Amino acid sequence: MEGAVLCPANHAPLTPISFLERAALVYADRLAVLASAGVARTWRETRARCLRVAAAVAGLGVQRHDVVAVFSQNIPAVCELHFGIPMAGAVICTLNSRLDAAMASVLLRHSEAKVIFVDRALLGVARKALGLVSEAGARLPVLVLISELLDDEPSPPDAKLQITGADFEYEALLGSAGSSPDFEIRWPADENEPIALNYTSGTTSRPKGVIYSHRGAYLSSLVSVLLNGMAATPVYLWTVPMFHCNGWCLVWGVAAQGGTNVCVRRVTAASIFDGVARHGVTHMGGAPTVLSMIVNATADERRLLPGGRKVTVMVGGAPPPPQVLFQMEELGFLVIHSYGLTETYGPATVCTWKPEWDALPAEERARIKSRQGLHHLGLEADVKDPATMRSVPADGRTVGEVMLRGNTVMSGYYKDIRATAEALASGWFRSGDLAVREEDGYIKVRDRSKDIIISGGENISTIEVEATLFSHPAVEEAAVVGQPDEYWGETPCAFVKLRRGYLQYTVYTHTGHGSIIK
């Protein structure tokens, strides 16, 4: 239109870094981070530390768009790294804290991470992984040890760094002469520049690196705030792994609202009730396993919610069982059911609740809440016939594939142009999940066309499990499928044919056990 211009006065690249800048001004003296061992920092202090992180990362030779890995549990440093690494112009890559050394080494080589920040609790796995990286002839990243306190244990002195094999220690690095709170932020010149790299196993054992942009992260953070009903200054308990979709983008979203991050290493019923009672937690989230922890808490672990108020819990993954939803309501927790993928920055749809449903019987309320619902404000969602790309009718019977498009869909797969083209074909992201639309338009997922098991909110590749089984000399044939589990949502179930001469024995896994029979 005549007279309209695009200029710095009316356009700036969107980036969640701006959330920290505003929080440090508007909420300067409010608590930003709380954790055990006496960690309590304001937003003013957090911003200064994040700038020191950025200066330190830049001082290690990291350039724009270089990848910096983080291998850690949910500790305060990870909140800082989510801002400090992008402020240096780099790309944060949070690795699953459950990884073994072999897979961690694969991801480090694929990402070509220049630096890796390692939680003290995971140092043993990280060192083995780096050994495998070295054996493969790849360049080793600089290792920065985060010696965050483990319960009441003292932090190791700098003199022990040589023993641990770390190049630097986190706090010492932030206190060094090259780490300055006056660092000049490397703002993105284009909001579509990468801010994060998240790995998902996808449908095969070959990992895929999902690229997030500054723009997508900014919008997804605000969407997550809206989906969770977060008013100003929420108190968020970190029961969602920060490595998973950057904590569903709420590491950035909490800053947008000047909230408080309550960090816990081990998610247990006791830590949840304690965090709610001590810190006035207003919001939390996680897989159905988190709900199971809460409803199965012992009398000693449970505490009444302060003032009779409710705590909002966003749950993703498998639909929570109706009985669990009933018990959560009785305990004072408001459950919001969402659905999404790593490729959609976390939540993509939400079962938006309607007031008229409150009067329905409990069983019907639970059935409604178990649906995946409708798309949020950042994208579009549809259920289509993948052959014709036509929307399926809202009859609750016709099955199609869930497809999504919009501003909170990934930029693509790192170093995989072919997989990116396939996933984004026809202008939609192909989720691979099969669903129906009910009469009110709400989506209900029926099955997954991808061979993936969702256990504890995380994806397990059946091919990876089968490959592990095949490595055993007793196994001749193996096939893995998912089976329902009250605690994990799903666990792998293996059907195995043994080689001659081997007797029945039992295999135990971290999610359960099963028998291998002749």
Give structural notes.
Its EC number is 6.2.1.12. InterPro entries: AMP-bd_C (IPR025110), AMP-bd_C_sf (IPR045851), AMP-binding_CS (IPR020845), AMP-dep_synth/lig_dom (IPR000873), ANL_N_sf (IPR042099). By secondary structure, the protein is of the alpha/beta class. The chain folds into three domains: 171 residues, 3-Layer(aba) Sandwich (Rossmann fold); 182 residues, Rossmann fold (3-Layer(aba) Sandwich); 63 residues, 2-Layer Sandwich (GMP Synthetase, Chain A, domain 3). Helices cover 29% and strands 28% of the residues. It contains 16 helices and 28 strands. The strands form eight sheets. Strands 4-3-5-6-7 form a five-stranded parallel beta sheet, sandwiched between helices. Strands 12-13-14-15-16 form a five-stranded mixed beta sheet, with helices on both faces. A five-stranded antiparallel beta sheet has the order 18-17-19-21-22, with no helix packed on it. It is globular and about 65 Å long. The termini are far apart. The C terminus is likely disordered.
Helix/strand layout:
Layout: H1 17-26, E1 31-35, E2 39-42, H2 43-59, E3 67-71, H3 76-87, E4 91-95, H4 101-111, E5 115-119, H5 123-135, E6 142-146, H6 161-164, E7 168-169, H7 170-174, E8 194-200, E9 208-213, H8 214-227, E10 235-237, H9 245-248, H10 250-256, E11 260-262, H11 269-279, E12 283-286, H12 288-295, E13 311-315, H13 322-331, E14 333-341, E15 346-350, H14 362-369, E16 374-375, E17 379-385, E18 390-391, E19 400-406, E20 412-413, H15 417-423, E21 429-437, E22 443-448, E23 452-455, E24 458-461, H16 462-470, E25 475-485, E26 489-498, E27 505-509, E28 512-516
Parallel strand pairs: 1-11, 3-4, 3-5, 5-6, 6-7, 10-11, 12-13, 13-14
Antiparallel strand pairs: 1-2, 8-9, 9-20, 14-15, 15-16, 17-18, 17-19, 19-21, 21-22, 23-24, 25-26, 27-28
Helix pairs in contact: 1-2, 1-10, 2-3, 4-5, 8-10, 12-13, 13-14
